Amino acid sequence: MLTEELIQSVIDISHQAGDKIMAIYQQDFGIYEKSDASPLTDADLAAHNCIVEGLTEVSDLPILSEESADISWQERNSWDTYWLVDPLDGTKEFIKKNGEFTVNIALIKDGVPVFGVVYAPVLKQTYVGILGKGAFKITAGVRADISPKAWTKGETWKIVGSRSHQSPEIQALLDSLEGDTELVAMGSSLKLCLVAEGAAHLYPRLGPTCEWDTGAAQAVVEAAGATVTIIEDATDALRADAAPLRYNQKESVLNPYFLVSC
Fold it and tell me: What is the distance between the alpha carbons of residues 53 and 47, in angstroms, rounded to a whole number?
C-alpha cells in the first residue's frame, strides 16, 4: 500500500500546501487572535483544501484534519487506516513570523503512525519517516538519513522546551537528570523532529496537544529509532515500561502527556 510513488506524492502534497500557506504568510498583517476572518485561518483552510484534494487523488482512505475535526467518534471508530492531517501547526510561530510552523501529514494504521511527512515551508526542510524503513530529512533538495542520539555520561542533556520560563513540572524533570541541561527551543511539531535527528535528547510535553499535532512527527521519530511514550507527570518521565502514544483509540482527540526520547 505504501509505495515509493505514494510516499513521493504525499511529500509533494505537503510542499504544495506549504506554497498556499506562504502566499498568505508573506502578506502584511498584525498580531491577532485566530478567527474566521484572520489570515491564519485563511492559511489553515487553503492548506487543508490542498491536502484533502491531493490525498483524495492518490488514496481512498478517510482523512481526519484539524479543519474537519467534527467527524463523529462513531465514524472514526470504524477506521483501521486513515490520514491524519494538521494543515498548519504552529499558530504562534506563524504570527511571530519566525518560520517554525509546519505542514503535517500522517498515515495511521491500527493506532500506529506508520508514515509521516513534516514540512517547514519557510525553513525549506522536510522530515519523512516510514516505520521499518527509517527516516530522512530533505533540505534544499538534498536528502540525508537521520537518527537519534542517545545521551552519554558526562554530556550535557539537550532538552526541547519553551523559549520562555519552564513550568515547575518540566523543571522537576530537569532537576532529576544527571549532569547539566541545555534548552533547545523550537516551535510546532519540529520539536519532535529535533529528537529524531539527534539535535536533542528529550522532549517532554506536559501540556495539551491534539492527535493531529503529533501524528506525522511521531512517525518520523519512531522510524528514526526514538520513542514517544505516555507519561503522567515529570516524576515518571524516564520509566522504561511507559506505553507508546497511539491514535484513534478514544473519542477525544486530545493526547495525554508524553515524552520523546531515544
Answer: 10
